[in-house]
Amino acid sequence: MKKFICFLLATVVCLSLFAGCADPDGENGAVRTVTDTWGREVEIPEHVDAIVCLGSGAPRIAAYLGVMDMLVGAEDHDKKGVTVLRDYSMVYHAELEKLPAVGAGGGSGANNGYAEQIIEVQPDVILAGFSQEAAEELEMQTGIPVVCVRYLSINFVDESFYAAMRVFAEVVGAQARCEQILKFIDDCKQDLSDRTKNIPDSEKKTAYTGAVTFSGRHGFAGTYANFGPFLAINGRNVADEVKDTNYFETDLEKIVEWDPDVIFLDPGNMDLVNDEYKTNPGYFEALRAVQNGEIYTMPSFNNCGTNITYAIMNAYYAGIVLFPEAFADVTMQSVAEEILGTMLGENFFEEMEQAGLFYGKLTLG
N or C: where does the chain have the smaller number of CB atoms within 10 Å of the terminal CB? Predict the structure, then answer.
C-alpha cells in the first residue's frame, strides 16, 4: 500500500509540474538513455541539473567528480556529523548538513531511500549504490529514474569503480573531470607497481593485515586475501594462500604458522586487539613481528564503499614499510597532499591523524 501511495504521489507531482511549467524551447521533454553498472538501460532527462545520491559510494563519486553542488538532498548519516571514516565528509559536511534528508545511508545495497522526501525535492535523477532490485523498487516508488553506480570493495581500485565513475559522469556531464581523476589513479597504480615489480619474491618481507573492517569491526584474525594495498606494490601477503575469497576470519593458529615478517593493524580496532592481547599475551609474543617491533597501522579505507583516496594512501604506506629503499623519496605527508588535493580539492591529512586514521608503529597491550 505504501509503495502504491508513493507512486500515486509521484504521478501527481510530475503531472502538476508538467501542467504548470511551460517549456518554450521544447527541451524539457528531451530524454537520453544511459546504461548503469548493472547493465540496466535507464531513460533520463537530456539535461540533468539536480541529483540525489544514495547508498554505497554514490555521494563519494559526486565528491570526486566535483558535482556536490548538484545535490538537492543528503543521507542521514552524512547530515549527523563530520566523520573521517568517509573521505568526502571531511570536505563537504557543511554543505550536506543543510540539505533535506532523503535516505538513511549505508553500504548494504538495499533501498533505504525516503521516497516521499525524494519526490518533494524533485531531482532529475537518483544515483544509487544499490542492488538492481533495490534500484527498481525506488524507481517505482518515486517515478524518478534511478541509475546504479555501485562499485566493489575488493582488490585494488578495480574496473567496477572505473565503470561507476564513467556512468555517473555521463549522467551529470562531468566526463572531463572523470577521465582526469581516473588517469591520476592509473598514474598512482603505475608508480606503485614500478617501484617494486623487479624485486624478487625472495627479497620481499612477508606481511599480514589484521583487525580489518568488513561488515563490521574485527579483531586480530580479521584479514584480507588479495588485499588491495599489498597487490598494488606486488607485496607478499601471507593470507593469499587462501583462495577464492577476499575478507575473512582466519584461525589464530594459522597466523602463527604464517609468522609474517610485518603485521599491519587497523588503528580503529586496536581496542579489540588489545583485549585479545590481555587475554593471551603469550600468543602474540610468539610472533616474530611482535618480537621485532614490526607492527604498523593500516587505517580502514572502507565505509559505505571504498574511500579510494585512503586505499591509495595505504598502498604507499605499505610500500614505505615493506620496501623502504624503493620508497625512500616518499613521505605520507606529500602523498596525502597530492592524493587528497587532486581527488577532493583539500588536504586534511592532519585531521585524519588526529581522528585516529594515522600512519606509524603500534605497540600491543
Answer: N
**Residue 91 CA from chain centroid, whole number:** 15
How confident is the model at residue 28, as a pLDDT?
62
Residue range 292-299: average pLDDT?
97
The 3-state DSSP class for residue 306 equals: strand
> By the 8 A CB rule, do 173 and 47 touch?
no
Give the integer Cα–Cα distance in Å for 78 and 59: 9
Question: Residue 142 in contact with residue 118, Cβ under 8 Å?
Answer: yes
CA 285-217-96 angle, to 5 degrees, is: 140
Segment 198-221 shows an average pLDDT of 94
Split at pLDDT 50, 70, 90, the class of 289 is very high
Identify each DSSP E strand in the chain by its residue range: 31-35, 41-45, 51-55, 74-75, 101-103, 125-129, 146-148, 206-210, 222-224, 236-237, 247-249, 262-265, 295-297
- HSE (CB half, 13 Å, CA atoms) of 321? 30
The amino acid occupying position 257 is: E
User: Among all chains, which residue has been given the C-alpha cell 549527523?
Assistant: 80
- CA gap 274, 264 in Å, rounded: 14
Q: Rounded to an integer, what distance in angstroms lies between the CA atom of residue 213 and that of residue 225?
A: 13
Reported as a pLDDT band with limits 50, 70 and 90, residue 15 is very low
Per-residue pLDDT, 154:
79
Report d(CA 302, CA 54) in Å as an integer.
16
Q: Which three cell numbers stand for residue 48?
A: 540533468
Q: How far, in Å, CA of 39 to CA of 293, rounded?
A: 49
How far is C-alpha 296 from the geometric centre of its chain's CA atoms?
22
Would you give the end-to-end CA distance of the chain in angstroms?
A: 55
Question: pLDDT band at 27, cuts 50/70/90?
Answer: low
Q: Give 84-118 pLDDT, tens digit per residue.
A: 999 999 999 999 999 999 999 998 999 999 999 99
Please name which of 198, 291, 209, 216 lies closest in space to residue 255, comparing C-alpha atoms.
Answer: 209
